[in-house]
Each structure stands twice: as C-alpha cells, then as structure tokens.
Amino acid sequence: MMQSYLKWVAGHERSFIHLTRIAIFLVMAWIGGIKFLPYEAESIVPMVANSPVMKFFYAKPAPEYKQHMNKEGELVPQNRAWHQENRTYLFAAGLGTVIIAIGILVLLGLFSPTLGFIGALLAAAMSFFTLSFLITTPEAWVSHFPYLSGIGRLVVKDVIMLAGALVCLSGSAQELLKEHRHEGARIEAGSVAAGVPAFNAAPPAAARTAATRAQ
Length: 215
Prior knowledge:
Elements: H1 2-10, H2 13-34, H3 38-43, H4 45-49, H5 77-85, H6 88-107, H7 113-131, H8 133-136, H9 150-156, H10 158-193, H11 205-214
Helix pairs in contact: 2-6, 2-10, 6-7, 7-10
C-alpha cells in the first residue's frame, strides 16, 4: 500500500510543480491587487523608506513616516494627505502592477516554459530582495534576533516563496532542455530521412558562428 502511494506521489512531480505555479500566481495576484488599497500601501512604508535601494521612490525621508502611520482600516485625513505627498499610493500601485505581472508570467509556465522560466526567475529575485527587509527595516524586529515583529513574520515567509519559485524555475529549465533535445532529434531524423549522414547535416548555430569567426 505504502509502495503504491509513494509511486503515485513520485509520478506526479510535474503536476505538483504546476500546482506550485498556480499557488504563486494566486498569492501574487492577491497581494499585488491589494497594493492599490490605501491601508496596504501604507503598511509597506517602513520597508520601502528604510531600504537603501527603494527609498528614492518616496518624497519624504525616513523616519518621518513614523508620525503618519495609520492602523489598518483607520482613516486619518492628515496622515492620508502626508502619504499622498510622499507618493506612497503611487509607488504601491506601480509595485502591485509589477507583482501581478510576475505572477501571470509564473502561471504561463503551465503553457510556455520560456515565459515560466522568466516569471520564476523574477519571482525568486523578488522574494530574495524582500528578505533583505529583515536587515534594513528596524520595525521587522521586536528587539533583536530571533524576536520577529508582525512585519518580520510577514517578510520571513518569503523563504517559502523563494523556494517555490526555484522549484518552478528548475521545472521550466527541464522542459526547455527537453524541447532542445527533441528539436535536435527531429533535425537528425529529418537528415537521415533525406539521405544526408548525420555528420554532413547542417552544423548547430554555435558551430557556424565559431567557424565564421575563425575565418
């Protein structure tokens, strides 16, 4: 019984990779979508404002934002006006668009290994960058390691997203290599059918390029 179950699981690796692609898309589409809402846009301010790479997107320097943070669902007109001046909502909308686009590329890996490879690579890079907030965001910690705050607990989950993206990346790479092998076999079969020996067949593009350079 256990043996047959293990064989079933082992035989569905490709299906599980596809399921991972769908899961990544759902998370990214959801998270990217709510980036257009003010409360979510405001929640990422501490991470963006303290990031040496992203702080330039905001008009106000850190830690000025600490005086204008709203609780989730809370509306303070003065704070809302400050965030508008800070470009908080504009940046979040742009970020949300990028996140949704990456999620769609990952999902398209169900049909196109090339698009899936690009999407998974971008998703892995995004997750890796998000994890850097654990270093640059003071609010990620209650006091010090290992005491993560709410923001820190949210960010550290990107380790799972990073691992899932790498699994999808590997799956797309395997499919691309398989396509190249099939293409090579098709060309060789066509040459044999035409009566052209394999060694007389047209050389690969890389070989032709090298020969041209040698001349």
